[in-house]
Structures
1.
Amino acid sequence: MIIATVKKGKPELRKKVMPAVVIRQRKPFRRKDGVFIYFEDNAGVIVNNKGEMKGSAITGPVAKECADLWPRIASNASSIA
């Protein structure tokens, strides 16, 4: 979990500092099996202090590592990569 500024979204949420979880990143990272994975864009979801999503849907894939750590985010993901 990180503290981030909202760049896109509803006007009442934009320009506010909130806790978030990174679900995709452009920088390649190495998985334990040796495979390097990276995504087309950087993305995160806003969460509360308990780790529950503030939104209701996630567009695009979610990293498997994120889905393992945050099961509530994984349940709303359309696909897990």
2.
Amino acid sequence: MPRRPLHVTGAVEAALRAALREVRGMPGVPGPFPAEVLAEAEDAARAPRLPASDATDVPFLTIDPPGSTDLDQAMHLARRGHGFRVHYAIADVAAFVAPGGALDAEAHRRVQTLYFPDGRVPLHPPVLSEGAASLLPGRTVPALLWRIDLDADGRTVATDVGRALVRSRARLDYAGAQRQIDTGTAEKSLALLRDIGRLREALEVERGGISLNVPEQEIHERGGGFVPAYRAPLPAEGWNAQISLLTGMAAADIMVASGTGILRTLPTAPDGAVSRLRRSAAALRIEWPHHVSYAALVRSLDPGEPRHAAFLQECTTLLRGAGYSAFTGGELPSPSVHAAVAH
């Protein structure tokens, strides 16, 4: 059945815009940044605390949704002997936000960036998040730089992390990255995203981990109105996520080894929840033989197929209970597992 976009225009569109403004005015949704926060952000943008190490010779690239300017992650991939070397740069917020300052207090109050169909409420002032701290191409920016060496199977063999200056060379969106990879026009670093991504996906299967390719619900402004739509994720998005997950797992290993850190945790779903999913699968006419595990079934589904997309959305109920657990003194929190990562 062809997908038919729904257009919201006229009086309905005006009512929707008013409703969105009302949502942004609800308690708990931050308003404009206070003047002292904006002033501190301007000062930080002009004089960040820069690291001594310089890695601007590494030709990083970013992959984000179209039009994104708050770029906080960049990568460079290369072959290394029979394996690979992953450079992964994460925007260094601490270079701009001083502990105990007005910016720090405001970020604690906001917690995260909130996204709405017609805009977003940012965690940090745009002069930082979309300017001085963003890993935009052609700019020298302080970052937390990870260097992770992998063997021929994609397993981590060495990890190093430190602060460094970096410079991105290219800003790509997912569709553009996928197109370059598929047509063989991608530069070496981007072309390796498929190779490394697939190896890491195979290791995820081996671990019993799960990645839900849930279609994204998007609302686009077009022609003065809104167009809601579902978009199935591209393979490049999954490969990109594997690089991010690789870095997160490396960070977790370092924290566990040191006995101090903060872990992202997710408890194993109770048996009753899986039984309920089996009933949902039956209702959607999705075959789920008893000898097939939940992880294996999820990996066999096509998010572009409506019944599969509906079931994948139901699968998100097994992700309830995710949280962060801080620990120190070598005593790991309980639970200290992430059921979806299975690491």
3.
Amino acid sequence: MSHTNPFTFGALALDKAFTDREDELRGLVADMRNGQDVLLYAPRRYGKSSLVLRAAQKAARDKVLVAYCDLMRTPTKERLAAALARTIHEDIDSELGEAAERASSLFRNLRVKPTMEVETDGTLRFSFQATRRRAAIDDTIEDLLALPGQLAAERKRRVALIFDEFQEILSLDPKYPNLMRAVFQTQPEVGHVYLGSKRHLLDRIFDDANEPFWRSAKRIEIGLIDPAKFGRFIRKRFEATDRGIRDEALTRLLEATLGHPYGTQELAYFVWELVPEGRFAHLVDVENALGQALRSEHSHFSKIWDDAPASQRLVMLALAAEPTGAPYAESYAERFDLPPKPTLQTALEALVKKELVARGGDGEYRIVEPFLADWLVREQERR
């Protein structure tokens, strides 16, 4: 019997591909059941969407109605309205009546009426057109945001409304946090889950006493996965597909990724592909797989390097060679030929905003983009 690769990257890791985060998962399921508002922060590719959607699967089994809206995919107000209409119709209201008739009834009081088209799979596609009166679409979005609360009361069911990459609401309209908070305060039966990856924007929304969302949500931050736990997961996945992995190979794999969710799954994927059924992965397989991973990311990393000014390049090279909790220390700056402190501080802050660098729970700044540190070191050795 041939096996498919058990490791997943570039897509949501659900079911068997989901690993660890059990404490966070239990907490999120309880929060959704209880209607608790939650802010979940993690850098990109740390698995927060997989975690929340896994929690949504479990909460749905407890009769919670779960709606999901990805703000990264809604660059205009009209697209936000369409995304809200679709998830409200499909995920909250789907059990009631015929689809088209129910949708028409559900949205009959909106200021801007949606155009509905039936897709080939039978689902409805919603679209909203811009109007001469700009406030009309704002009123429509306000009414759409109010619907989950109305439906929760009507159906006597708890609703969880998930917003992925919530910080993008600021680029859509800086006034929208006020609009949303005004609606959400009237929805005790709806729990709101906000996912985000840009700390400085999330801090602005949730930690500023002058902002409407100030202290309005339970805050959860997820980090790297404990390498020991990830190691057990990887070994089990190999064994379940009639393969094995030597201790030294597993140790090297985890050293290369430091428990980064996306990066570990990616490297494990490449290692698994190199190992025939009935064989073990060895250290050389991990090194070869790491080379494959770096080649697959080369264009992406080259663009990061090309777009970075000289000061940011110097900081990236320093952190790739040696993560530190004291980037402004004179000895560190001299060792890596870093620019003067004001320039260094500006460069470091810019890299944090780009989500290329983060300060971990141990207080150290390090490169967080999977494999970027390895790529930088190898590229420098070639020059």
4.
Amino acid sequence: MKFTVSSQALLRNLQINSVSLASNPVMPILEDFLFQLKGNELEIITSTADVTTHSQMTVSNGVSGAIAVPGKTLLDTLKSMPEQPLDFEIDPDSCGITILSAAGKYKLVGQNASNYPEISRPGNEDKLILKGANLLNAIDKTIYATSNDEIRQTMRGVCMNIDFNHVTFVATDAHKLVKYSLLDIQSNVATSLILSKKSLLALRSILTKDAEVTVYYNKAKAYFEFAGILLSCRLIEGKFPDYNAVIPVDNPNKMKVNRLELLSALRRLAVFANKTTNQVVLNIQDKSLTISANDFDLNNEGTEQLVCEFQGEPMNLGLNAKFLIEMLSAIAQEEVEFELSDSNKPAILVPTEQDPGENILMLVVTNY
């Protein structure tokens, strides 16, 4: 096996694959990049227990073969190397790898490719097509709401609920909930997938806004294919909670407020809130929103007043400042609206204007 490749082009592909390069795995070979060369087409594969990444690139002077190349050694070598052609020569018997550059020669030992675990690929799975920008938005707007609870595994991921003409992404940790829908998305089937936080973080790090993403899925795995890259992930097993059941439907009290003004006030007042509860109290009147925070243990307190538009009876809400800051930071619109039932029921937060083709709803539990 041998080939010639641009050092920087190879480095770019290795960095893409490094999102699923295992660290201290049970199988040491998963610390390697799997190189599979057919003619002048080089496929690079990395895999953890949950996420697998494939990337494709064109090389020259190729002689087909396969080898598992030590990941960290190769990455560290290329990071400090200027752009130049590199010649790779692999001895299939000893798995010895020789790399020739313009001014140097490097030798390392890989592993037999046959020892690498079998990698699944999409076959006749159902599929749908998403824009990269939309998928990135879905990840950014939901991933922070996932749970860290080891017991409730399904809540540690994002539910991707596929319908015939839209896709809804939902995440919740039982204290906050985010429901983000992409409209006018065509699918031949209706189903639900639970994507792990780890796989979505890996996908987010390599996905570009201008990509067209084909999503293949079955009961066990999801595959995201775009721009010569294939990322597959194992789905979380189980049933996601019935999120629609916890969203209040009768919310006669509605408050509109400038998002950035509210966000800035919350960031300042969070300093004065109790560090365990992070609670702030919202006192909502006709045209006035007063936010207060107290930490009785340290005798700290702070109060700010904002202008708002409010329809309903005056009320007090106790909310977690940290959760509100996360939610307000995940949207870009100038103004947001709180839809409220009473002080004891969850508060709904939505932008006053939704982006075309999208719909987002956020829910935060009250505590007053």
